Amino acid sequence: MKPILQLIITLFTIQTGFSQQLVCSTKDKDAFESKIIEIDGLLESEFGKTITTVGKTFLGTPYVAKTLEVDEKEPLVINFQGLDCTTFVENVLAFSNLLKDSKTEFSDFTKTLEKIRYKDGSRDGYASRLHYFSEWIVNNEEKGLIKNITSDIGGIEIAKTIDFMSTHRELYPFLKDNEKNYNKIKASEKFLNNEVMCVLEQGKIEAHEHLIKSGDIIALTTSIKGLDITHTGIATREKDGRIHLLHASSSGEVKVSKEPLVDYLKKIKNNTGIMVCRPL
Predict the structure, then answer these.
(1) CA dist 70 → 79, 185, 200, 271 (Å)
(2) Given CB 3.0 to 4.6 Å as the disulfide criterion, which of 9, 30, 86, 184 pairs with 22?
(3) pTM exceeds 0.90, yes or no
(4) Beta bridge partners of 19
(5) Pairing between strand 18-25 and 76-78?
(6) pLDDT block averages, 10 residues each, the chain of length 280
């Protein structure tokens, strides 16, 4: 991040008393305005199709990791110049909800993105971000934004201890030397370890692929010790009639997988299957 290009913006809304600290470049503010114009008229009768259509407007956006790791005070980061797999899904969901609700203001977008990205929709430091994607799923289902349909399409319950962040705290700049953040992350892990985790196993996806719809959020589960999800993206049924993955790929940019999801997953080391969520 180049500080000279960044604006730290504090928004205050008199009517609600709402205040928000943002990290947003002038280029990203302009990109927001352009995106609102670009998605105008893309609302579909099926919300999932809206999700996919909006998602494809990001095709070619560079993949950039760790764009949210900018400050220990955890400002709300707005960055359309580079996306990782999670921020891609979050931005697509935020813009799609604005479209559904006929909202176009930047302040509406920031409120929506904050609601999606943070525990209970409230940004309160580093540990309030939904770092584990399985917790992201649980929390956003509680907010009424998505529905976890994994068990409905053939998923099974699994038992796995989630503790990767607390056992690898040296990998996280705002966690390794901060006991307050560490204890809150441990609390999140304890919460997840008391939740039921349901996975559609890799070998069973093809038989249940017809139940996955365009716009569903796909989360890739893993055998890596202590970790729940390694990657996420959006399902899209392409011209071949198969479900592919629309995602911010670490190989370079936002793209649609060349091969169907089933075949794409077979190439992912340590993949065990997927979790599937339907935006509401």
Answers:
(1) 12, 18, 35, 30
(2) 9
(3) yes
(4) 12
(5) parallel
(6) 43 38 94 98 97 98 95 94 98 98 97 98 96 98 98 97 98 95 98 96 97 98 98 98 97 97 96 98
